[in-house]
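All the exercises in this workshop are built on plain-text protein records. A record pairs a protein's sequence with a compact description of its fold. Read left to right, the backbone structure tokens trace the chain's path through space. Once this layout is familiar, the rest of the handout is easier to follow. Here is such a record, shown just as it appears in the course material:
>
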Amino acid sequence: MKSKKDIKKVVLAYSGGLDTSIILKWLQETYDCEVVTFTADLGQGEELEPARKTAELAGIKEIYIDDLRETFVRDYVFPMFRANAVYEGIYLLGTSIARPLIAKRQIEIARETGADAVAHGATGKGNDQVRFELGYYALDPDIKVISPWREWEMSSREDLIAFAEKHQIPVPKDKRGEAPFSCDANMLHTSSEGKVLEDPAIEAPEYVFQRTLSPEQAPDKSTYIEVGFEKGDAVSINGVAMSPATLLAALNDYGRDNGIGRIDLVENRFVGMKSRGIYETPGGTILLAAHRGIEQITLDRGAAHLKDELMPRYAELMYNGLWFAPEREMLQAAIDKSQEMVSGMVRLKLYKGNVDVVGRSSPYSLYSEDLVTFEDDEGAYDQKDAEGFIKLNALRLRTLAARKGL
């Protein structure tokens, strides 16, 4: 544990909920320090003003509640989607991508307020402690970091509630029992894990899903939308220009209503264990399909295939909390270069949990009907040329076959 003498002021990532309210009081009591609270509005769908009132009741004088929705989507979500980043085949990294922005703003607030430490509420078993702290240290190598879950003696829900009651921290009725699962949310997704979800052999109960209708409940009629792109970023829906956060919110609505974006994943955590998570990413699932659709006609084969080779590495960096690492920035530069001509329109069909690309067009399209037509192409492609192409590519295979005596 860090010495009390070392900590004068700490910036706490604060939701206003029971856990972070307990952490706030624990910091005051354990370190005898001043606490600055920081609450980020990332579109989690919760009223955030109660966090201000809760902090005020705890005697906090410096309270930050920042609306970061546009920054989140424009500067973090969209760059990640340019890469088509997916972890272990299906996870769209909704929790991972939020952590570097929160860490960055915490460090900025620490500098603004003269704080010498930052604190978070992530547990010692999860990935988020790594993501937060790698972000902190990348932006301020000398910052002191407090992780209460790795320091205090409390180990159960009963311990937390007893601490809250001792210090007159209000405990809502729904927090007194054991929560059926834990949840993290932002504009991009919801993540649910633990408790009723811990057995990966048992289907998740329907009440776990908060952002989407079940595909069975979705309309029996298809919904068609058109997403416009400029340089790899979505800029419009059905011809209406939108800001990044407004656009993602609209895609979330389409995804919710059509039962799109649910996944059930047993993932490999960075800290070494496997965990089961239920994720809902309605708008992101649509956005990924749309982005791949526009890339199909605007990216050269070599660039497209190289992007697909780089993507798993990029996704792993995201998952592991290395947004500020030089290798992520290097990959991002290459990815952003590939997006210079990724502009145009994608038409999508949404139906009962499915997203299908059914049309795409671009002023920079590399698709040529003259080349692919089965009709007379008037000399655009001489089919006889394919013979030499095949023989040259078969040369090494024929040499290997000869060596085998075939």
Observations:
- DSSP finds 13 helices and 14 strands in the chain.
